Amino acid sequence: MRTFNAPGRLDLSTEMLLLPACFRPSLRITLFKPFLWTNIAAKNKSSRSLSFPIVRASSVSTFSTASEAAVMAQDGPINQHPLQVAKRLEKFKTTIFTQMSSLAIKHNAINLGQGFPNFDGPDFVKDAAIQAIKDGKNQYARGYGIPDLNSAIASRFQKDTGITIDPESEITVTSGCTEAIAATILGLINPGDEVILFAPFYDSYEATLSMAGAKITCITLQPPDFALPLEKLKSKISKNTRAILLNTPHNPTGKMFTKEELEQISLLCIENDVLVFSDEVYDKLAFEMDHISIASLPGMYERTVTMNSLGKTFSLTGWKIGWAIAPPHLLWGVKQAHSYLTFATSTPMQYAAAVALNAPDSYYEELRKDYKGKKEILVDGLKAVGFKVFPSSGTYFVVVDHTPFGLPDDVAFCEYLIKEVGVVAIPTSVFYLDKEEGKNLVRFTFCKDEGTLRSAVERMKERLVKK
Ligand code: GLN
């Protein structure tokens, strides 16, 4: 068997490499080296150097670079079928959410990593889906959304922003917001177009921009408040900028862009004729201030694609119902990309989504109240454990500084947390172009029942020791 020299943290990466394989029907085992941890671990000079075999399932891409893939091909992996992936995706790994949720199962750890509720969505929405299936709403939906859902989205947008839109020509229903992001980017960005991204950023943004061949310009939001670095933005934005990708409330930090910040961004976009792609999936989880859609600011609707989904607001992340809202001249590109990506979205779920969006205001108030309680349990708990907790105004995430516990970086900390403490968090370095920028931060989610949150805090109190 072939062996590789690898830094000391390998037993976790080995597990990570193996775990997704457990869920796959055909396992072709290939010898290969670790992927996620390599960069950070290599920088950690104190790491022990171990030599032992690594196995992984060949159905998961692991190449970090083209040259790594070439070396592997030359060396001849034991199955003689080197992994293949197009250049536009070769630098991307198995998503951190998939890896962490697999590890949570493997180690029986409490999963405060991937953002999915461990409680169910409301009965009135589930019943509507069952009814739609029974009523035979089971064939292809109209490509850009069933009329009932488009109308419900338009009404909600009107209520939230005061803007009246045409449900037929200004909305496209997609398979979750992730597809809305992809359709927007692939439908409106040409290869070589410059797009500004704020780091830390949700992982699909970079991968999708890469698929479109965009040139990414990254601006980092710095703790503790992750405020807009206006001068930096002014220095980066220009007539050559095609779009800014915005996310408010912001994953992973929980930052909400203030009215002043949004106005500053708007003025620069208007001045430089720049589009805004705004991911607002956490808009109903706004705790410390009101959510503002940038599309509602003067001169902005005509240059903005607003994206949202059902998953977070109705605790139905597995339904994958999302949408993009934009004026007809921009929606055209989004709609075209959507037509050839997925064509249409699950029909019965769209009927249920229309029922969901017509929920009374009290539903949203209850949701917010409930999450506020959960947030308090987690934030107070994390502070009591000894973390430095950064303020989170929205989303169901909170970011902390893990350095009081003496681990060298976010990945090492998360490894320790899973294996020695039994709690899963997300290392934030995956959300930066420059991984070093995220090495002190990890993200916890509070979209779990209160008992689970309290148990996680208890485990951390018992087993995490300040260094
Ligand atoms: N949005 C979820 C999160 O940030 C993850 C979704 C996914 O796994 N792709 O945790």
Automatic annotation (TrEMBL):
Superkingdom in the source lineage: Eukaryota
Protein name: Aminotransferase class I/classII large domain-containing protein
GO CC, any one term: cytoplasm
Cofactor(s) essential for the protein: pyridoxal 5'-phosphate
A Pfam short name: Aminotran_1_2
Sorted UniProt keywords: Aminotransferase, Pyridoxal phosphate, Transferase
Keyword Protein biosynthesis listed: no
Aminotransferase class I/classII large domain sequence ranges: 109-459
GO molecular function annotation: kynurenine-oxoglutarate transaminase activity; pyridoxal phosphate binding
Keyword Transferase carried by entry: yes
Classification lineage: Eukaryota, Viridiplantae, Streptophyta, Embryophyta, Tracheophyta
